[in-house]
């Protein structure tokens, strides 16, 4: 079974802090994704990566950056957390043209 | 926007009844997928239907696709309380088939 893990289920940070969300997949998938999910807005793509060191902006990249140094790991970075980044963050991976497999999510609260 | 839209936004039924959810989208697709999300968890893939398919079954799930109407439906037969979850459709267009665009979901409640 494909396994996608995220470093934290719940996270509380203060405004202005630098925040790292880590995601690891164990199926050698080329593609990895970061979404945020907010009530009434559904899932919105922040960034995705189609290969090591390759990334592409999604629909809402502002305030976020990403890093993919190894195929299995995709990190989402909030350079200076703000209260409007309080959300559920979901990581996913997939093969090309494939189904996406999601991690359990990280619920981030920025105070 | 390519974003699929599910209908209804919320659905409440009794155990044993069938649940039907619909999804509409705006541009051409290669395939359409349905996902399920239990409260506070990640999404789980249920089924994928390709643009040249009209119907697909998986256990108690039946998915139809009408590309002329740009719509899909997900039918869950003989529902169980454990089917309580949010259900999302996702389409793959916009020139990059590995990227999916998700709808806002239908929240299904199955009452025991």
Cα-atom Rg of chain B, whole angstroms? 13 Å
Count of spatially separate domains of chain A: 1
Structural class of chain B: mainly beta
Top-tier CATH class of chain B: Mainly Beta
**How many strands, what sense, and barrel or not for the largest sheet of chain A?**
7 strands, mixed
Can you name the CATH architecture of chain B?
Sandwich
Overall number of strands of chain B: 11
Structure description:
The complex is a heterodimer of chains A (111) and B (112). Chain A is mainly β. Chain A has one domain: Immunoglobulin-like (Sandwich). Chain A is built from no helices and eleven strands. Chain A is globular, with a radius of gyration of 13 Å. The termini of chain A are far apart. The mean pLDDT of chain A is 94. Chain B is an all-beta fold. Helix content of chain B is 0%, strand content 54%. Chain B is built from no helices and eleven strands. Chain B is globular, with a radius of gyration of 13 Å. Chain A binds chain B through residues 4, 30-31, 33, 35, 40-43, 45, 48, 50, 58, 88, 90, 92, 94, 96-105, 107, and chain B through 3, 30, 33, 35, 40-45, 48, 88, 90, 92, 97-105.
Topology:
The complex is a heterodimer of chains A (111) and B (112).
Chain A: E1 4-6, E2 10-13, E3 19-25, E4 31-38, E5 42-51, E6 54-57, E7 64-70, E8 73-78, E9 87-94, E10 101-102, E11 106-110
Parallel strand pairs in A: 2-11
Antiparallel strand pairs in A: 1-3, 3-8, 4-5, 4-9, 5-6, 7-8, 9-10, 9-11
Chain B: E1 5-7, E2 10-14, E3 19-24, E4 31-37, E5 43-50, E6 55-58, E7 61-66, E8 71-76, E9 85-91, E10 101-102, E11 106-111
Parallel strand pairs in B: 2-11
Antiparallel strand pairs in B: 1-3, 3-8, 4-5, 4-9, 6-7, 7-8, 9-10, 9-11
Q: What's this, in brief?
A:
The complex is a heterodimer of chains A (111) and B (112). With 111 residues, chain A is mostly beta strands.
Defining key terms:
heterodimer, A: 111 residues, mainly beta, Immunoglobulin-like, seven-stranded mixed sheet, B: 112 residues, 0% helix
């Amino acid at each position: 079974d494909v396994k996608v893990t995220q470093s934290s289920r719940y996270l509380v940070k203060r405004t202005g802090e630098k925040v790292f969300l880590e995601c690891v997949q164990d199926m050698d998938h080329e593609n990895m994704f970061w979404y945020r999910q907010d009530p009434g807005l559904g899932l919105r793509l922040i960034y995705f990566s189609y290969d090591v060191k390759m990334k592409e902006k999604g629909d809402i990249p502002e305030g976020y950056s990403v890093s993919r140094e190894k195929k299995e790991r995709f990190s989402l970075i909030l350079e200076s957390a703000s209260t409007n980044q309080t959300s559920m963050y979901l990581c996913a991976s997939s093969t090309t043209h494939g189904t996406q497999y999601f991690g359990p999510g990280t619920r981030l609260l920025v105070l | 926007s390519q974003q699929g839209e599910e209908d209804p936004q919320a659905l409440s039924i009794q155990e044993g009844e069938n649940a039907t959810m619909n999804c509409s989208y705006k541009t051409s697709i290669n395939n359409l997928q349905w996902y399920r999300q239990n409260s506070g968890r990640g999404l789980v893939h249920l089924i994928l239907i390709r643009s040249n398919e009209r119907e697909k079954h998986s256990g108690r799930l039946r998915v139809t696709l009408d590309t002329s109407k740009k719509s899909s439906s997900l039918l869950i037969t003989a529902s169980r309380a454990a089917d309580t979850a949010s259900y999302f459709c996702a389409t793959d267009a916009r020139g990059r088939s590995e990227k999916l665009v998700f709808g806002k979901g239908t929240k299904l409640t199955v009452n025991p």
